[in-house]
Every structure is written in C-alpha cells, then in structure tokens.
Amino acid sequence: MKTKTLMMTGLLSMISAAAFAQNPVAQVHQDNTQIRQDSKQIHQDNREIKHDNAVIAMKKNEVAAGQQQLQAERQQRTTLARAEQADVKKGDLAGAQQLDQARRGEQQVIRQQKQDIKHDEKVIAHRQADKQETKVARHEEKVQRHEDKVKRDHDAAKI
Questions:
Q1: Which positions carry the signal peptide feature in this UniProt record (predicted)?
Q2: Is residue 6 part of a domain?
Q3: CB-based contacts of 87: which residues, under 8 Å, 6+ apart?
Q4: Looking at the 3D structure of the chain, how many domains does it have?
C-alpha cells in the first residue's frame, strides 16, 4: 500500500513538474499561431473548392446547352426526313429532292460547326501549352535569381 502511494505521488509530481516546466504563455502563443495557420489553410481550401465548383457548374451548363442543341438538330433532321418520305410516297420527287438538299445542307453546316469546335479546341490547347511553357520559364528565372541572391549573401558573409 505504501509503495502504491509513493508511486502515485511520484507520478503526480512528475506530471505537475512537466506541466509547470512549459511556459503557459509560450504554449498559448504557439497554439494561436497553429490555429491561425490552420484557419488560413481552411480558407484557402474553401476558396479552391468554390472555384472548382463554379468551373464544374459552368461545364455542366455548357454540356446541357450542347445536348439541347443536339436534340433540336435531331428533331429537325427527323422532321425533314419524314417530310421527304411523305413526298416520295405522294410521288412528288421534286419536293423530296428539295427536302433532301435542305437536309444535306444542314448536315454540312453541322460538319462545319464540328470542325470549328475542333479548331477552337486546338487553339486553346496550344495557348495552354504556351502558358505552361511561360510558367516554367518564369519559375526557372525565379530559381536562378534565388541562387544568385544566396551566392551574393554567402560571398558577403565571407567579407
């Protein structure tokens, strides 16, 4: 019983000594600094998430608009094809040819639009590649300036 009491007393004295050994003010400052850093990181993450969500929403809207346009074009082609078939059944070959030409003209316009979209995508890809090259070049220049500064500081310290 005495040994347990002595062990407990010794343990409590070690814990209290460790607690008093730390400067409470320094610990509070350290905790506050850590909290500020964590808060900044959380705010930055929230900004990035909001930006990503905005980009995703914009892309979803673009996809939805493209699907609506595609659906409308399909309906127009279907309508023209039905009208053409109806004219063929009636024996009106001239009307059927006109509708066929109109449908082919629309298909040509659609092909041209697809080519324009592909061209725009290629232009964007080239711009992104150029931008990335510029970023890499700037980063290399920044690293070189930093190395020069460190070397100057080191040489100045020798003097």
A1: 1-21
A2: no
A3: 93, 95, 96, 99
A4: 1
66 is written with which tokens? 């493209």
129 or 2: which leads in pLDDT? 129
What is the rounded distance in angstroms from the CA atom of residue 87 to the CA atom of residue 33? 81
Q: What is the pLDDT of residues 6-64, one digit of tens each?
A: 555 665 565 665 555 566 677 778 888 888 888 888 888 788 888 877 877 777 777 67
The sign of the dihedral angle between the CA atoms of 79, 81, 86, 87 is positive
pLDDT per residue as tens digits for the range 126-151: 877 787 788 888 888 888 888 888 88
Evaluate whether residue 37 is within a structural domain.
Answer: no
C-alpha pair distances (Å), 74 with each of 25, 60, 71, 118, 146: 73, 21, 5, 21, 60
Show the domain range for 143.
47-158
What 3-state class would DSSP assign to 92? coil
List % helix, strand, coil for the chain (3-state, nearest 5). Answer: 95, 0, 5
CA–CA dist 150, 112 (Å, integer): 57
d(CA 9, CA 15): 10
Residue 96: inside a domain, yes or no? Answer: yes
* 118 occurs within a structural domain: yes
